[in-house]
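Hi team,

Filling in the usual template for the complex we talked about on Friday. All components are listed, including any nucleic acid strands or ligand strings, so the model treats them as one assembly.

SUBMITTER: L.P.
PURPOSE: interface mapping
COMPONENTS: two
RESIDUES: 497
SEQUENCES:
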Amino acid sequence: MNENFNELEKKLESAAQSVSLSTSEKNAGRATLQSSMRATAARSIPSPFMHSVALWLRPSLALLIVFAVTGGIASASEASLPGSPLYPVKVRVVEPVRAALAFTPEDKANFEIERAHRRLEEFAQVSSAPGAVEETTDSELATALQTHIEDATESIRDLATEGNETGALETAADLHALLEVHTTVLDRLDVAQNETAEEGNDLITVLHDSLDESEDLATSLEDALATASQEEFEDAIEEQADEFEEHSLAVAEEVAENAASLDVEDGKEVQEELAETSVIIESAKKAQLENRLSDAFTLYTDANDKLNRLSIIVEADSELGTDLIQEDESTD
Amino acid sequence: MLGEAAFIEAYDLYADAIFRYCFFKTKDRELSKELMQETFTKTWVYLQSGKEVKNLRAFLYRVAHNTAMTELSRAKQQSLDLLKETVGYDPTDEQTVSPEESAEHAIMLRYVDELDPKSREAIVLRYMSGLPVSEIAEMLGESANVISVRIHRALKVLKEKMQLP
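RESULT (copied from the run log):
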């Protein structure tokens, strides 16, 4: 590069050699790799049946299989809670079939996030009922929640490894927003019921630990975003803009459906949150116009997270019959 | 698609460099071995799914980067001080250099580690991994000119610290 640096360059290259694998380490690594390559080859023989099924048909196929196997019981089990006779159908039949038919890392991560959301909703509903949550219920939900979060995290990492950094970051942000808003809901349920923080509660421990980890995951993916190309950003922003439209409609419907349970103050808070979201979107559009694509992407992600949180909290406020919408609703 | 024999050849060619790259990210020899292994396994799985990789070496670095960053966020980065206290900064177990050279390597590596993250990455990729500037630029999404300037500035810093003429 520059003649003056010759000696330094040689020293750097020489120092690099001190960081190397020993012959035995390299051989062991090669053997392990060959072994996992053979295992992968054995696993990756595609199903001749699935090969002919178009991607867009696969979710429908999942539902069809679930319905064929369990009939109306499957749909009836969807609203069941721990302790109900239909609950095992929900978590041991319906969900595993849907999980098995999520083919891409993004689909897998999204479904595991949905499952985590379900366990957290179930816990909130059980907690809001009179009487303490049974220890076995708490323990089962905590274990399931941890598994869903770990599986979602693994799929998010796979997504990043495939080179889809923007998709990985969006999904990680969704996971973080979900855990954050449920932390808020459960904290407020405690306050509403005048209970002390449940130190011995397994699920709350998992939730708090996972919240920190999901934040670290999102931070690490933000760093990986530096390698994303302009095209990737453009595609991701387009998807985010579509998602925002859908979320906006969903929140509006949520608010309309639950209007009866929202008092005047709640309505005002929700409108303020929506107004803040609009401001973020305006900034995102401006950044997009100025070709600051990384900023635009981050702003769209923030706006969608805000809507996600708002949607969950409005729904929980209505379903749990507890006033969860408060002035500091945003937990940013 | 790349066959098994060709992929093993790629392993023999790049394993050390990928391990080194992971080491400069994690400062942990054992963890870096695992990350190197995971990098090759994930890449193989990716290739087996029928996807095409135009530049295998660049792809391996990208996978290694993502895998290491994820691991760091999970495990929390071990501090350099702690590393020095526990395992020392000389990660090789097949030393063929004199104690003086070994000490100089340790000092050099410490100075590299003290560089700002972007400069460190560029130096590691250029001199520790032997990548050409054009490939580093492609990998980091920067222009070759930006990378050249970054390397030049980092070399100046290192030269000063090493007190070289």
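MY TAKE: Residues 77-91 of chain B have pLDDT under 50 and may be disordered. Chain B touches chain A through 66 residues (CB under 8 Å).

Thanks, L.
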